[in-house]
Specification:
Blueprint: H1 19-33, E1 37-42, H2 47-50, E2 55-57, H3 59-68, E3 74-78, H4 81-90, E4 96-98, H5 114-125, H6 130-133, E5 134-139, H7 144-152, E6 156-158, H8 163-171, E7 176-180, H9 183-192, E8 200-203, H10 214-219, E9 222-225, H11 237-246, E10 251-254, H12 260-263, E11 268-269, H13 272-281, E12 287-291, H14 294-303, E13 308-311, H15 327-338, H16 350-366
The structure holds 1,3-dihydroxyacetonephosphate and iron/sulfur cluster.
């Protein structure tokens, strides 16, 4: 019988090992754990990680899977911190969520702090009856405490695949939406819904009243937090022009976190799952320029050999934090779990959890 380590293994012992060795050890740890573990992998994860995932998907699909698989006591989440928090909120209290590297955050999520959102709410409250007129809608790319803020104030969460349905839900209830932290997902969705530009304002958390006059705030129907994804902002309209000129029949497909100037020039826009599904289902011989994270596009290139798949940008747009989950971290987390040691346990505080679940459940009900 295998000896069980008395103390958790150290990550330092995993660095520098060959990919082949780590692959074999991760497979063995997973086999030993059997139905005691479920490995979830976001579409942006590296190949050496995603190959161990029981399920891969976008943030909505992974959140649903975490909520549905109550039979798996442990969820190893290969993604970023906010996704693992969402899994913890939606799974049972008896389940344990593990993020193989705690440094796998999201720079966009860091662009809205609860103190700033509280301050924004107070400032709006000095101009209008905020609780009756403004509905807070937060992109899941955010800390649990912000989801809790939305739950407590009648608000809701959204993902890139249901932002439109969420905005419809929100405007059916209140006159205005405070959408955070991604300005671009909010604007692109509202553009598609036909909201005139003069009814959208941007809230800069570092300026009084977000940099807006009281009159502009009263007239606005959509208040967009000034936040963005550092990966998707790299795609430029010129990249679309370049591909259209070079391959006149090419289809351009992008993620809604891209700037509107890119989205407006694209043929299709949608979540990572939508992008994968669309390109995979396209006829052989078709050409695609894809505007989202590099790992996803490289995998599409490899898997869809009968199509011509191009990365939309000329520079490397990789999510540096998603990339932190690598073969050594995954193997380390899995072998420790097989030994009975939980490392990097994601625990959302109970107070935040209850209200955040309210906001997530509202979203789940309309997704
Ligand atoms: P998806 O929900 O489309 O997978 O996007 C998550 C994300 O972080 C994109 O940058
Ligand atoms: Fe966050 Fe952008 Fe990375 Fe998505 S791609 S996890 S939004 S930094």
């Amino acid at each position: 019988m295998k000896a069980v380590a008395a103390v958790p293994r150290s990550i330092a012992d995993y660095q520098g090992r060959s990919v082949e060795e780590l692959f074999a050890r991760t497979v063995e740890a997973k086999r030993a754990l059997g139905n005691n573990v479920m490995v979830l992998g976001h579409n942006y994860q590296r190949d050496e990680v995603i190959e161990h995932a029981d399920f891969r998907g976008d943030s909505l699909l992974l959140a649903k899977l975490a909520a549905q698989h109550a039979d798996r006591p442990n969820i190893v989440f290969c993604g970023v911190h906010f996704m693992a928090e969402t899994a913890d909120i939606l799974s049972r209290s008896s389940q344990t969520v593990i993020l193989p590297d705690m440094a796998a955050g999201c720079s966009m999520a860091d662009m809205a702090a609860i103190e700033q959102v509280d301050e924004c709410w107070d400032q709006l409250g000095r101009i209008l009856p905020v609780e009756e007129t403004v509905l807070p809608a937060v992109y899941v790319n955010s800390a649990a405490v912000l989801k809790a803020f939305c739950g407590e104030h009648g608000g809701i969460t959204c993902t890139s695949s249901n932002a439109r349905a969420v905005m419809e839900w929100a405007w059916a209830r209140r006159e205005k939406i405070l959408f955070f932290p991604d300005e671009h997902l909010g604007r692109n969705t509202a553009n598609k819904m036909g909201l005139p530009r003069e009814r959208m304002i941007v809230w800069d958390p570092y300026l009084p009243n977000g940099g807006n006059s009281a009159d502009a705030i009263r007239k606005a129907r959509l208040i967009l937090w000034k936040g963005h994804c550092s990966v998707h902002q790299m795609f430029q309209p010129a990249h679309v022009d370049y591909f259209r000129k070079k391959h006149p029949d090419i289809k351009v497909i992008v993620h809604p976190e891209c700037h509107e100037d890119v989205v407006n020039k694209a043929d299709l826009v949608g979540s990572t799952e939508f992008i994968i599904r669309t390109v995979s289902a396209a006829p052989a011989g078709t050409a695609w320029a894809v505007g989202t994270e590099l790992n996803l596009v490289n995998r599409l290139k490899k898997e869809q050999t009968d199509k011509h798949v191009h990365f939309l940008s000329s520079t490397v747009c990789q999510c540096a934090t998603m990339f932190r989950i690598d073969a050594p971290h995954l193997c380390w987390a899995m072998e420790n779990l097989a030994d009975g040691h939980v490392v990097n346990h994601i625990v959302v505080p109970e107070d935040d959890k209850a209200w955040a679940k309210v906001a997530l459940d509202r979203m789940m009900a309309i997704s």
